[in-house]
Every structure is written in structure tokens, then in C-alpha cells.
Write the C-alpha cells for this entry.
Amino acid sequence: MRGALALLGLALIAVLGAAAWTVVMDLNSERGAAAADARHAYVKRVQEKIQEVTAQALAGTRARGTRTTLRLRIEVNPEGLLSSVRVAQSSGDPDLDQLALTIVRTAAPFGAFPADMRRTTRVVELNSVFQFH
């Protein structure tokens, strides 16, 4: 685990990029544009929280120079609770995969969906890409 933490030291983490998430929603809502803005802002807050936890987990570590990518699938319910998180594409290092899962679990909960978003959104699914350098 210590080696995985060291690998993360200089990690460039592209978490939850704008194109890397989808939202399951009811499409017959008149509040579509407002809800879309709320979803974008909500995903940005989730991203920032995961990045904060990552920075805390990596404080004082150094990278080994290995390059790898890890993909996680994250689902958040309307209460902001983590419904599920799983490795969609492994980094090839089980310790690194486990560390990324632990970081996301530690970052949860993410806060309840805003009222407008709650009317149109049942779950936020985030396909998160971590790139480690």
C-alpha cells in the first residue's frame, strides 16, 4: 500500500471530467436547463471533494515515475450518498486500485442534490479517470 501511495505522489488526477459523467434523469421535465446547470455544479463539487481527499491522502509522498490509468464508476443517490463505486478499468496494481476506491469512499457523502435537480435526477453516474504520472 505504501508503494501505491508513493506512486500517487505526483499524480495528475483528471477526476470526473465534464465529458466523463452521465446523469439518469426524467426527460419530460420543463426544468431541463436549470436542472442541467444544477447537475454540472453538483458534479463539480463532487470532483472537488474527491480531489481534496486525494491531496490529503498524498501529502508528503513522492512518485516513482510510473504512468498508468485507472477508471472508476461512481454512483451517487439524491441524498448524496455513495450508492456504489467499482473499478471499471484496473491500473494493473491492486493496491493502487484499492487506494482509489478508498479515496472515493472517504470523500462521501457528497451532499444532497439541489431541489431542482432532485425533481429530475434519480442518480448521478460518474465515470472517473485517474491518470497517474
Summary: Residues 2-132 form one domain.
